[in-house]
Amino acid sequence: MKVLYVASECAPFVKTGGLADVIGAVPKNLAQFGIDTRVIMPAYPALASLLARGKIVWQQDDLFGGPANLVAVKSKGITLLLLNAPHLYDRPGNIYLNEQGKDWPDNHLRFGALCQVAAYVASYGLPRELKNPLNDWQPDLVHCHDWQSGLVPAYLKMVDTKTPPCILTIHNIAFQGLFDAKVIETLGLSRSMFVPDGFEYWGKVSFLKAAIAYCDKITTVSPTYARELMQPEFGMGLEGMMQSRASDLSGILNGIDTDVWDPIHDRALNTSYYPRTLKRKAKNRAQVEARFNLDSIKNPDAPLFCVISRLTTQKGLDLLVETLPNLVARGARLALLGSGDKDIEAAFIAAARQFKGKVGTIIGYDEELSHILQGGADAILVPSRFEPCGLTQLYGLRYGTIPVVARTGGLADTIIDANQAALADNCATGFQFAPITAISLDHAIDRACQTFKQPDVWEAMMRRAMNHDVSWDKSAKAYHDLYASLLT
Ligand code: ADP
Ligand code: GLC
Which one of the ligands is nearest to 170 CA? Predict the structure, then answer.
């Protein structure tokens, strides 16, 4: 079976969040079912060396204002189809935002182009005349991810010949790709689809709604988020649309790349460890303390918490700011790595000043440091207001870094709360809290601190967390089964 993934990021090549981790991991795990996956994505500047190494498999003189070609290249177990269109992608800054932190004004063209070329490859395949081993390939099925790929099902509907079935995975419904209606003609879309059952959304064009309307099946990244998406509180205005597609919607939980996230082989860590040697994990704490200017405490009687996150309203870290005085008063410490909204960044910078040695803040994006934190902290805080799946709590499980999470979306599905029953049955792997308020987060932090004082209970929880299956095995099988159901 041949499957085309359409996405805007893919780890380890380009990453701004969990979407990249998923796109970088699933194709490798689908290979065990004989699925040949290719990932089509823009050739951003960070991919220049891959681009130079690849082979051109398709080209066009004018793709929305400039020449474009598609370059096939294999790297790290993934076959990429890089859409090389310098007028759209060769620029500094973030892949979505300019240097002022604003959306690139031509994002409709940048991701519309990705969708158009993906739909072309899906409909007609890569041409034979430019022969090379990666040419002459046509997918049996297309798998779109998030709004950046949203127009693919719409473009496929406009093709006269039979086209492959198309699946949409919603990683985050908060991002919908909304643009002025005048882009309809620019993007060569059909006006007949600019209707409430199509891609029209309050007079605008919604890329995500296009995919919801025209794809064959919809998945999202956890069963709880699949239910939440149909509720006004989480559906972000698309809940009605999601309800109308309820029978085609399912939740398939994310896994993690256990080759990349593995405390036994992680090169970022001073000391490797596994469940039987988990006491060695404490040695990595010094690495975190040094990087975050935290007081070094030999025998802590309260945990070192960490946060690795985008700093946005979604992630609920403003609630953590409110609870910090209590966290510090309990003798606990916090190391935070993140970037995003300037006011949240400023609040944590101020907290590090106020609670010197107890709270450490590093603003920025640092992949290696995120491994060091997972390897050295005792617990990880994820107080999200909503969380489709969340990956940092899964990395936490794998590293025995006990997750303290809001009871929502994938966080609710992946962490077993250490309530009395779960402790009695020896199945707790972390702490959940609800409602998602500062007071409730504070209670969860307190429970974690109390439990930390009982090393036997805490270590048993660490061991269970580390042994919990967070691999892609089950979910890759679920994707395979879904694909197979559409192809029979
Ligand atoms: P989201 O995709 O909503 O940001 P996830 O938990 O699914 O949330 O994925 C976030 C990914 O980005 C994880 O791999 C996490 O380790 C990583 N990450 C987030 N912020 C940072 C940061 N500042 N530095 C390094 N990695 C980060
Ligand atoms: C999104 C979600 C996050 C999820 C990730 C990967 O960014 O916010 O919860 O884990 O996608 O699916």
Answer: 2
